[in-house]
Amino acid sequence: MSAMLRGSNKGKYMYDLIVIGGGSGGVRGSRIANVDEETLVTDDTKAATHGAKVALIEASMHHGPPHYAAIGGTCVNVGLMVYGSLFSHDLHAAQQYGWSGISNPTHDWSTFMEKKDKEISRLNGIYGRILGNAGVETFEGIGRLKSAHEVVLTGPDGKEEVLTTERVLISVGGWPFKPSIEGADLAITSNEIFYLKERPDRLVVVGGGYIAVEFAMIMAGFGSKVTLMYRRDLFLRGFDDDVRQHLADEMSKLDNIDLQFNTNPAKIEKNPDETLKITTEAGDEVEADCVLMATGRTPKTEDLGLDLAGVEVRKDGSIPVDEYSKTNVDTIFAIGDVTDRIQLTPVALMEGHCFADTVYGGMDRKPDHEYVPSAVFAGKNEIGSCGQTEEQAVEEYKDVTVFKSTFKPMLHTLTGVDTKMLMKIIVASESDRVVGVHICGEHAAEMIQSVAIAMKMGATKKDFDSTVGLHPSSAEELVTMRSPAYRYVDGKKEAKL
Ligand SMILES: Cc1cc2nc3c(=O)[nH]c(=O)nc-3n(C[C@H](O)[C@H](O)[C@H](O)COP(=O)(O)OP(=O)(O)OC[C@H]3O[C@@H](n4cnc5c(N)ncnc54)[C@H](O)[C@@H]3O)c2cc1C
Ligand SMILES: NC(=O)c1ccc[n+]([C@@H]2O[C@H](COP(=O)([O-])OP(=O)(O)OC[C@H]3O[C@@H](n4cnc5c(N)ncnc54)[C@H](O)[C@@H]3O)[C@@H](O)[C@H]2O)c1
């Protein structure tokens, strides 16, 4: 795409760009597109010198009901909940190493929620200030397209205003989807779980994606008894099969998690004492205090007026875009979860940044979705993953070598905790390039970020082998796996090496 003119609107419209949605992608896109030298205030805005006149419309400047997401996005909620939930494991481990005075630890949910909310509010404020410093005009309210160059802003007081703009960037994200089973309204979603007044003693989680697995482990870490219902054989579809199975095996070892695969709820009812009864499609009953539906997210495009602007929308509500995040309308762009590419915060940031650099910065920057690392924060058994699964690699390269290692992390040689870590390296045999790395175990997320750099640079297995390990660490296993577990030749798994 040829670079467009900076601030080319020349007074025809009120703004060069209106951004609808101020989460991860929208804040980044607007901040980078905006800012001329005169409004540069902090170091944080120094990179942003593209000079467009930008307005950003965000439904809420403060997290929580009814919009839940707010300026800057609320992803950090999960991070804090994960950290909070891990202490139960750490406190147990500490005692096995001789620490005392912590034999009967208790957790105060309301103290934790209060501190978490305070931190998220602080972040909301920071994002508001960053935008202000960058010179982005920020409006609280709902944005809706009236035409390709007009956006209706409905403020918190219900008042409507029409803003005109040369271009629009849509970054409205998604909203949790609940299947329409009987009593679904009694279930909460990931929106509400961040605001529970009390920790449920018994939680049923429905679904088998990131959110289902993470919240099953988070709430179990805090002490809830969790039943995870997933409609198919094994959760986390799309992840490497060995990693999925390894995590399922590890979760099955935990006393307070009951994994129920091939199980789906048929109805949810309220008992006279306000607790809930979940009846599965097979007719089994489970009693719980709370049901979390983690059954996917739907792009938030329903009332966005996309039809009035002529923007194409897929059946599932997502917006198709080209490699520069442009929709079928030349002046309308979309980034982040609403486009249904990879739904991760850093990906939305990258897409927003590339958009601004290309359209207002005179650069030619396409977001690069290859070797994007991801993590599932499943307690002490988190997954860190980058690149292809074994199945995908065999499909693409036919000749593939697989290295695998399962071992007990050194920490647990003294704790007595029955847990294992899995590491897997997938290599395209002909080029020796490492095309997939999958880790399940403590600190997997931290490890995979560094591995992703090597993979992005095209590292071969030989490069991994020639790197000296760091001892003692679990990560050193990544550079000491010398013997392949098995190979594929011409797409067929070889029984013997
Ligand atoms: C529970 C949960 C945990 C997650 N954990 C992680 C994680 O650990 N790591 C990770 O990388 N990703 C995580 N994600 C995914 C990540 O949050 C998204 O990929 C990312 O936020 C997408 O950014 P976005 O800009 O597209 O949308 P969002 O960040 O969702 O922002 C959209 C914004 O638009 C606003 N909005 C919507 N409609 C309108 C409108 N009409 N007018 C005005 N404003 C509007 C919303 O209020 C919201 O603030 C998680 C998601 C969820 C739900
Ligand atoms: N750690 C992270 O980076 C992180 C954490 C949370 C979310 N996310 C992002 O957010 C996105 C959304 O997460 P998610 O967990 O909501 O979605 P998901 O697509 O990962 O999982 C949805 C799950 O719900 C199940 N499901 C769908 N419809 C159902 C139905 N009618 N009945 C029963 N089950 C049904 C699916 O089989 C799937 O297992 C993810 O794709 C991910 O990119 C990332």
From TrEMBL:
Q: Which UniProt keywords apply?
A: Disulfide bond, FAD, Flavoprotein, Membrane, NAD, NADP, Nucleotide-binding, Oxidoreductase, Redox-active center, Transmembrane, Transmembrane helix
Transmembrane intervals: 203-222
Pfam family membership, one? Pyr_redox_dim
Q: Which residues form the Pyridine nucleotide-disulphide oxidoreductase dimerisation domain?
A: 373-481
The answer to whether keyword Nucleotide-binding applies is yes
BP-aspect Gene Ontology terms: cell redox homeostasis; cellular response to oxidative stress; glutathione metabolic process
Task: Give cofactor(s), names only.
Answer: FAD
Which InterPro entries does this one have? Answer: FAD/NAD-bd_sf (IPR036188), FAD/NAD-binding_dom (IPR023753), FAD/NAD-linked_Rdtase_dimer_sf (IPR016156), GSHR/TRXR-like (IPR046952), Pyr_nuc-diS_OxRdtase (IPR001100), Pyr_nucl-diS_OxRdtase_dimer (IPR004099)
Listed binding positions for FAD are: 143, 337
Outline the extent of the FAD/NAD(P)-binding domain: 15-352
The molecular function terms of the Gene Ontology recorded here are: flavin adenine dinucleotide binding; glutathione-disulfide reductase (NADPH) activity
One GO cellular component term: mitochondrion
Q: Locate the residues binding NAD(+).
A: 207-214, 296
How does the cofactor attach, per the note? Binds 1 FAD per subunit.
Q: Which residues form the active site?
A: 471
Check the record and name the Gene3D superfamilies matching this protein: 3.30.390.30, FAD/NAD(P)-binding domain (3.50.50.60)
The UniProt entry, under PANTHER family, shows: GLUTATHIONE REDUCTASE
Family named by the database record? Belongs to the class-I pyridine nucleotide-disulfide oxidoreductase family.
Assembly and binders: Homodimer.
NCBIfam families (UniProt xref): PRK06116.1
Q: What is the protein's name according to its record?
A: Trypanothione reductase
Organism listed in the record: Hondaea fermentalgiana
